[in-house]
């Protein structure tokens, strides 16, 4: 498959959207089966097993469902937990997280979703993220825009798309996650992250000049939905390390199709001047900036790059690698 | 009005739910009018004015709508911004935030809502929180339970209601907000909050024994919705200082009716043994713990109190007062 025709692309896109809807329904059914009221009897197993086991089972069920569905298409597939090796090559590959936001799902906090990315020649070109309890489906197909619930184009504000604030990160919503690495060590990722969050949040001039006075700090517990809200224009900046390609493949496709950019979380040697490249899909370090319209003095891309550099000046390098 | 009959209560409850639905629709219309696609022309004013002005206008419009509606009932009303004095007395009083999650609304991140509390003899006895872009309406009436979208009883998991983890805060979703006080001062609320967040998040044994290893840290940017998700059982712990009674009045009613508790954020002199009282509605310091079922060794209330004490051991006193 050297190239994909527009017709093939359409077929794969429609298939992916439907697959996400079906898989999302499984997730929602799983959540509802744990509730007690309204004709939805709770499963005995829920009371006997730990909620973690229940979630693992749903996760595996949805993964099996997705894999079986994709088998018909005959592409390579891999998803969360299969391996820590980076397996994406030039062949068409599905990169799937059957359940992103696992902790949220355990607690039935609605910020959970299925995330399906279709990667071709190393680039995510189709992405679908479906959060069934929010009734929000985010999707994109290369060259055809990014969409909310099939009908509303992303970003939501697009007439015109608002420019980024002149003094970003001030005025921005900054999205970030605390993650699983909670070691109490000066060089641990928890300390590095929180120092970075503090710099972004603190008043201008504070923290030795690093204070960014962002408008708000948000943590949802789902990398896929963080990226969806970047594409929507709801979050201005997402900075994160530690997640994997299955968490972000669909989000990469959706954010880029909406006009956002994703580069690496870790500042390079010369954050003021180094080239701002695309984040490697499997790099575990991500910095996304929302779609931005032009102002009177700069293009949207220039404003995005300015914002990236302002973030890089304020954050500490994170320490995540692949095994 | 010395007492309220069940009939009067029903009338006020139905009125409040309808009022929240109507007001929420105004919020949603306001958001949609700023989007450009799908037959929803963007307002010229949006491009001319800053988004802050636009939001202020919506906020005022919705407040006027709510006030006009409530005037028919002839009760006292006050809401956000009217004054910083605490005005709730024994008379029936409406405590309203026409738009909670203002920053989210500005950015069209769906975590915004209208919050309407009906306070009688100093106690919030009816609460309605409506997040129109999430299509989630949380409501409660004294003695009649707390509900999601009129039909699903809260908390969501209730057959049985899960106990709190034995080793809480480990295993808990911890919800917290960064707030507006961003001073770079050792005794500022930003530093106090972040130190507390770090203690809650850090591995067990870390931070001089204060590490709580919570399952996840969440920040939504809406106190009303934080409390709604406590009532739902999605968040286990919410710890916050700085917000006002209009942010929490409806949430107080809903959380308590669902079986959760709300006490003060600031640890007392003897966090291990001091009586755990109700948080004053206007105290600006709140610690909420979700509804909890019994385990084999303790009642739900005992587990909630144990959790409160474990939080108090880990957090720093916040510095918020009334003018």
Walk me through this protein's architecture.
Two copies of one chain form a homodimer. Chain A has two domains: 6-154, Fructose-1,6-Bisphosphatase, Chain A, domain 1; 173-314, D-Maltodextrin-Binding Protein, domain 2. In chain A, the strands form two sheets. In chain A, strands 1-2-3-4-5-6-7 form a seven-stranded mixed beta sheet, sandwiched between helices. A five-stranded mixed beta sheet of chain A has the order 9-8-10-12-11, with helices on both faces. Chain A has eight helices and twelve strands. With 323 residues, chain A is α+β, with helices and mostly antiparallel strands. Chain A has helices at 6-32, 44-48, 51-71, 102-106, 189-201, 223-232, 245-258, 300-314; strands at 76-79, 93-100, 113-120, 123-131, 136-141, 146-148, 152-154, 173-175, 216-218, 237-241, 261-263, 285-289. Chains A, B: One of its GO terms (molecular function) is metal ion binding. Chains A, B: Its EC number is 3.1.3.25. Chains A, B: Mg(2+) binds at residues 75, 97, 99-100, 247. Chains A, B: Belongs to the inositol monophosphatase superfamily.
